[in-house]
UniProtKB/TrEMBL annotation:
Pfam families: SBP_bac_1. This is Sugar ABC transporter substrate-binding protein. The lineage of its organism: Bacteria, Bacillati, Actinomycetota, Actinomycetes, Kitasatosporales. Keywords: Signal, Transport. SUPFAM superfamilies: Periplasmic binding protein-like II. Belongs to the bacterial solute-binding protein 1 family. Residues 1-23 form the signal peptide. InterPro entries: Bact_solute-bd_prot1, SBP. It comes from the Bacteria.
């Protein structure tokens, strides 16, 4: 593959000039101070799924990197199908330097293709010092660290209208049974209990994962995520049965099952926090707050709040997370400057830029919680950090994309069919196993 010749300073020399002497292998974590423009003239191309407000906020991080190093950046939004877009760019000789990968399965795929550079000693040292080991594990393939988790999501949060719960006379529930009971109280007071985004299959996988992690436990969760446990296992049938108690109760779903299947994620938030509320609660990750605030003007902590996804069947409360890992492609024209970007992203100073802007959680333990702009986000972030190694990464994001990340196929479609008709959890488990076996074999 022909590549443009560059004048980039090589290896440690460039990083040391850009960030200070501690940027190299024997030193400490990268310093965000300094900024002597040592990478002036270089351009780092970055690909990721973000668009809209997320892209604008990430651009602020990239701009801070430019200010400190002189390296310009160019961000390209890939849409949801990161692996296809990046693969096409590599084949076309136009590989980005850095990719923000939203799925563990895609990171593993990229590593298996030989596309990724192992992360530098400085990044590895920062990750070891500043992150719970679970984030290092999810960023590694066969013991080699390829991915730096910059942005995290807390997917064990149920968001609610305080007015709706007050009107129903209920408080945030402490168990899954209490959650359904509270839902009936909300329904009796005039609103549906839950707005479910069934049109987006990924939200249904998140529902399942929280129930399964709490009910079956982390060991089985890990085994199922790796497909070392079949989806026909009784623990899967039990979790589907538990979830089906909600899905089959038309009193609990805004618009019933048909309405849920015609509601996408933004629409599900609108049904709770929009100008004409139809439901009292919506389950999804911490990013619900951004939609409620930015699109509907809700004040987080006042007229939009959350409670932790409650424990199921005597289990512990689940903490399911997701996240975007920065990786450096071998075929990028400025891969060395790309690694310098990752050394910056590993610092709490880089995380602080987006944390101050909002709509962001960092897995970096060294980020001062006071940086977050509101108490609810701060509490969510602190919960994620406190969970440590009990955090489990989104299971569908760990799976091959054909099973866990493709619209109209695999787990997304099977769970949509289950929402439509939750009467036979055992048959649904069998369908999930058929789809998983095909995808993992491929």
């Amino acid at each position: 593959m022909m590549r443009r010749r560059t004048t980039l300073l090589t290896g440690c020399t460039a990083l040391a000039l850009a960030f200070g002497a501690t940027a190299c292998g024997g030193g400490g974590p990268v310093s965000a101070g300094g900024g002597d423009q040592a990478l002036s003239g270089q351009t780092v191309s970055v690909a990721g799924v973000w668009s809209g407000a997320e892209q604008k906020n990430f651009q602020k991080v990239l701009d801070a990197f430019t200010e400190k190093t002189g390296a310009k950046t160019q961000f390209v939004s890939t849409g949801d199908n990161v692996s296809t877009v990046v693969g096409s760019k590599i084949e076309g000789g136009n590989a980005p330097d850095v990719v923000m990968v939203p799925q563990v399965g895609v990171l593993q795929q990229f590593a298996a293709q030989g596309w990724l550079q192992p992360l530098s000693p400085a990044v590895r040292k920062s990750v070891t010092a500043n992150y719970a080991p679970v984030w290092k594990n999810y960023g590694s393939v066969k013991g080699t660290l390829y991915g730096l988790y910059f942005k995290a999501a807390h997917k064990s949060t149920v968001w609610y209208s305080p007015d709706a719960l007050d009107q129903a006379g209920v408080k945030p529930p402490k168990t899954y049974d209490d959650l359904l009971e509270a839902g009936h109280a909300v329904s009796d007071s005039g609103l549906a209990a839950f707005s479910v985004a069934g049109q987006d299959g990924w939200t249904l996988t998140d529902w399942f994962e929280n129930v399964y992690l709490s009910q079956a436990g982390p060991e089985k969760y890990d085994a199922l995520a790796a497909h070392e446990l079949k989806w026909t296992d009784q623990s899967v049938v039990d979790a589907l049965t538990t979830l089906g108690r909600l899905f089959k109760d038309k009193q609990l779903l805004a618009g019933g099952q048909k309405g849920a299947l015609n509601t996408d994620f933004p629409g599900s938030v609108e049904k709770v926090f929009g100008p004409k509320p139809q439901a009292g609660m919506v389950y999804e990750g911490d990013f619900v707050a951004g939609v409620a605030k930015d699109q509907f003007g809700r004040k987080i902590g006042e007229d939009a709040n959350f409670f932790p996804f409650p424990p199921v069947g005597g289990g512990t409360a689940p903490v399911v997370s997701g996240g975007d890992a920065a990786v450096v492609l071998k075929d990028g024209e400025n891969a060395k400057a790309g690694m310098a970007l990752l050394e910056y992203l590993a610092t709490p100073q880089a995380a602080a830029v987006w944390a101050e802007a909002g709509g962001f959680l960092s897995p970096n333990k060294k980020l001062d919680p006071a940086t977050y702009g509101d108490d609810v986000t701060r509490t969510t972030a602190e919960s994620l950090i406190a969970a440590g190694d009990s955090v489990r990464f989104d299971m569908s994001d760990q799976a091959p994309a054909a099973f866990g990340g493709t619209k109209g196929a695999g787990e997304w479609k099977v769970l949509q069919d289950f929402l439509r008709d939750p009467s036979d959890p055992k048959a649904t488990a069998a369908q999930l196993e058929t789809a998983a076996a095909k995808a993992y074999k491929g």
